[in-house]
Specification:
Blueprint lengths: L7 E14 L2 E14 L3 E5 L6 H9 L7 E10 L2 E2 L5 H7 L4 E4 L3 H4 L6 H12 L4 H14 L5 H5 L8 H13 L5 E5 L7 H18 L2 E6 L2 H7 L2 E6 L2 E7 H6 L4 H8 L8 H6 L7
Helix pairs in contact: 4-5, 5-7, 7-8
């Protein structure tokens, strides 16, 4: 948890990202602006297709191109515009200074490399370490994320692990260089409730230990309430509301945010949501 007096680590200004498809151009992110402060957890919430993940991929410069392209904006990290950096400099920042956990670890991990080899490869890309030293560091990170039997798991392949173990492996890989910023894109998707809680607790504990900022992307407002300090609500590529997490849950101002909150178990739908023409949540 931080307050707004802390250092602004990342600033996104008027970011717009388009996809050029055969059917025409789709605006996936439309003029998005926000700040991320050192050490804070910023939640980004919205329905599927609202632009959350594309915003993260734009920050990391990992958009598939074509068809994706950033048409406007700046992404300032410690004063440098990431959109103007060479790919060589961006590779140094990506993973080393800004890391990302992707939605589905099974498709993000290489199926033909052992877990330890994949983590060690990332470590060696940023540090001058011998293969054995990198592997020892990889095993230490697996231990840090509470992977059961880390030495044995390091020698196994992704398909041999459970979903929760694969997600722990992704966290270990992302944090192996102790980045300043961790972007977690739906880090608990497809996990059962017990494992979800373990993963969220793990991220929160490692955030405090490493003193990093976290951008938590999710459609689950319950997760936002548990871990975020500030919240951005996105719809149709735009930010429709930004607020402290307590203020958002107690006094949401945008009809879309009110509608999202009305869908939470135990909460009544708001009159504003009904008058806005948005679909009604369950009574």
């Amino acid at each position: 948890m931080v307050n707004d007096t802390k250092q602004c680590l990342l600033r996104v200004e008027h970011l717009s990202t388009h996809f050029d498809l055969s059917e025409g151009t789709v605006t996936a992110v439309d003029g998005v602006s926000f700040d991320l402060h050192a050490g804070e957890t910023l939640g980004v919430v919205g329905e599927s297709g609202s632009g959350k993940s594309v915003t993260a991929l734009s920050i990391m410069r990992l958009l598939p191109s074509p068809p994706g392209r950033i048409v406007e904006g700046r992404i300032l990290f410690e004063g440098d515009d990431l959109l103007t950096l060479s790919e060589k400099r961006m590779r140094h920042i990506r993973g080393h200074r800004i890391a990302m956990i992707f939605q589905e670890p099974m498709t993000s991990l290489n199926p033909v490399l052992t877990l330890g080899a994949q983590i060690a490869e990332g470590i060696r890309a940023h540090q001058d370490l011998h293969r054995r030293e990198a592997m020892e560091t990889a095993i230490a990170m697996l231990r840090k994320v509470e992977m059961p039997h880390p030495e044995r798991r390091a020698a196994e392949y992704p398909h041999q692990l459970s979903g929760g173990m694969r997600q722990r492996a992704m966290i270990a890989m992302a944090l192996s260089m102790r980045p300043d910023i961790l972007i977690a894109d739906e880090p608990t998707t497809a996990l059962d409730v017990t494992i979800q809680a373990q993963i969220l607790d793990l991220i929160a504990r490692l955030q405090e230990e490493f003193r990093m900022a976290v951008v938590l992307i999710t459609h689950n407002l319950g997760i936002i309430a548990q871990i975020a300090r500030r919240v951005i609500v996105m719809r149709a590529g735009k930010i429709v509301e930004t607020a402290d997490v307590c203020a958002l849950f107690e006094r949401p101002t945008h009809p879309y945010t009110q509608q999202l909150l009305s869908l939470l178990p135990g909460r009544r739908r708001t009159d504003t949501a009904v008058s806005s023409g948005l679909p009604e949540g369950p009574r």
